[in-house]
């Protein structure tokens, strides 16, 4: 959360949930606090609220979810100080993306990521407890699972938080025109939601370069129409090794030349340039149909590929978790 302070730089905003104990040392600081019920303006922008005239609410039992603390050093208080709010306090959400091998955690305050990590599934509960200890303000969670989270872990999660499990019945911030919604990957739902959040009202193509390369299109009318799925970079390397007798399994590498003069170089050229040409080709075909197209590239191989593409794109490695957070926010206001 950001604040712009004027006239008195010694005024420090400090915000905690109502349920939290007062963490402020009142012997060192003068404290004013304020809650949503106390505003005379009756609206949510909170511009130019005076201190301490407006900040006079003295009850912690008013029913408000948050109380806004303003800490003023005793020796340097200016009673005519004013504070202009630029953002409000937001709920803190936990995002959990369960993959085939790893579980990704992200903690959001509003739209901002304040913590993220990736762990192996066997250490899920241990890391979950650490996150709750470090971020006690979390009260809601969304789970997206392409792998399988064991029932005990899910039960433990629901015991501590309000949990939304993303599935085909979850309410989404867009119209879903996919013909088989029950077979649509949860990760693709999240990516489209991320596009709706970050690029509203535009034709957007989201490309996720991971195990598979997925292409998902949402129109400027907020209608998700579908896309395409093709093998990812590692899958292509592995297929050449698994489905032939003599081709080696190589690690991903940007080829130095188009023409491979060894078997290894030929594999690198075929796999990497093949992926790049595929992505550029599909983007160009979409642009032929939608002139105002916005393209987002995300996924594990996004950084590897982004600088080599001919088309203009937005690269964002956190697009999936941001999309999940948007789905959670959307369902929290329903």
- How far do the termini sit from each other? 24 Å
Counting DSSP E segments of at least 2 residues, the number of strands comes to 17
The secondary-structure class comes to: alpha/beta
Regions with little confidence, pLDDT below 50 for 5+ residues: 1-89
Rg, Cα atoms, Å: 25 Å
The dominant shape is: globular
3D architecture notes:
The chain is α/β, with parallel strands linked by helices and 334 residues long. The chain has three domains: 3-85, no CATH class; 90-165, ATPase, nucleotide binding domain (Nucleotidyltransferase, domain 5, 2-Layer Sandwich); 204-322, ATPase, nucleotide binding domain (Nucleotidyltransferase, domain 5). 27% of the residues lie in helices and 29% in strands. The protein has a six-stranded mixed sheet with strand order 12-15-14-13-16-17, sandwiched between helices. The chain has a five-stranded mixed sheet with strand order 9-8-7-10-11, with helices on both faces. Strands 1-6-4 form a three-stranded antiparallel sheet, with no helix packed on it. Strand 14 and strand 15 form a beta hairpin. Helix 3 (186-198) packs across helix 7. The relative contact order is 0.11.
